[in-house]
């Protein structure tokens, strides 16, 4: 038996679940409830984890706890490891959604969640009421990290930018969209047509803005394709926050049409066609080919395909 195998055999893998819930909840009592053990048992497990990592992991601050730097680093790793373990032991020759307690994990942007979140929630309520769905929000460009991330989740929903040639990834188109511009309804542009000079002179709200030299997120890529170097007045790590940040200002933003139309119903914004050659958005489900023959994953893929088709 190899040294690495001996080390793994000597570990109490139940501690992985304890660690995950502690880092999620940042509270011993709530973590104990999530794991289904007593608070003293959970505290004992935390003590073992602290000895193993030689780190406090959770430090009391005021009435609550905060994570140490190491704990923040472990958070993403333990989520990936637990998701992979759950996939492994949930895999079988059949899948009954009505009785399954499997946890599915999907990674997507908050824009995508705004579009498919409600039908997805209704699907699980109706077809798989005991199954669990964990949605992790994309915080930045995924193109570099996707092959690794896809190994530990059930799927990533993202446009096919630089992803088609990545090895061992399968894909399924879900729905399409397109870019439009949004401004405050009281903007000097009014309902008139936009020109490229307009876009160049105005201040911008840009989600997930990155400096040149790093992989560009979708909005920055679209602006670069138009030959624009935007004057970024505000940047935000969210697509859904963008429309509110132009209201009452003379700023402009590029937004997915589905999102813009919904926000125009409740915010004082105007939706304007973007000049230049149109560029569509193809929201695609990506998964690792290890999941191809998993019947539970096949069910999820087919249901997501149906949601996409109903969106039109």
Automatic annotation (TrEMBL):
Domain of life: Bacteria
Coiled coil: none
Domain HTH lysR-type residue range list: 11-68
PROSITE patterns associated with the record: HTH_LYSR (PS50931)
Gene3D superfamilies on file: Periplasmic binding protein-like II, Winged helix-like DNA-binding domain superfamily/Winged helix DNA-binding domain
InterPro entries, A to Z: LysR-type_TF, LysR_HTH_N, LysR_subst-bd, WH-like_DNA-bd_sf, WH_DNA-bd_sf, YidZ_PBP2
Family: Belongs to the LysR transcriptional regulatory family.
Name of the protein this chain belongs to: LysR family transcriptional regulator
């Amino acid at each position: 038996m190899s040294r690495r195998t001996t080390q793994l055999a000597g570990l109490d893998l139940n501690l992985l679940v304890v660690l995950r819930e502690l880092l999620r909840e940042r509270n011993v009592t709530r973590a104990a409830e999530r794991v289904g053990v007593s608070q003293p048992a959970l505290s004992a497990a935390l003590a073992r984890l602290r000895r193993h990592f030689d780190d406090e992991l959770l430090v009391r601050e005021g009435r609550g706890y905060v994570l140490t730097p190491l704990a923040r680093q472990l958070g993403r790793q333990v989520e990936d490891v637990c998701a992979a373990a759950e996939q492994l032991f949930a895999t079988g020759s059949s899948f009954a959604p009505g009785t399954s307690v499997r946890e599915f994990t999907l990674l997507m942007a908050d824009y995508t969640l705004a579009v498919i979140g409600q039908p997805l929630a209704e699907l699980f309520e109706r077809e798989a009421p005991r199954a669990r769905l964990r949605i992790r929000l994309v915080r930045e460009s995924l193109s570099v990290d996707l092959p690794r991330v896809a190994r530990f989740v059930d799927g990533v929903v993202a446009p096919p930018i630089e992803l088609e040639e990545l090895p061992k990834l399968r894909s399924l188109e879900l729905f399409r969209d397109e870019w439009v511009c949004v401004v405050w309804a009281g903007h000097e542009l009014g309902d008139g047509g936009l020109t490229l000079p307009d876009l160049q002179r105005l201040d911008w709200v840009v989600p997930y803005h990155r400096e040149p030299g790093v992989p560009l997120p979708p909005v920055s890529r679209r602006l670069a394709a138009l030959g624009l170097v935007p004057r970024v007045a505000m940047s935000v790590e969210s697509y859904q926050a963008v429309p509110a940040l132009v209201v009452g200002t003379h700023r402009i933003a590029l937004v997915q049409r589905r999102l813009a139309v919904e926000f125009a119903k409740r915010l004082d914004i105007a939706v304007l066609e973007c000049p230049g050659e149109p560029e569509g958005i193809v929201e695609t489900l990506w998964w690792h080919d290890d999941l191809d023959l998993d019947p539970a994953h096949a069910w999820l893929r087919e249901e997501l395909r149906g949601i996409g088709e109903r969106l039109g």
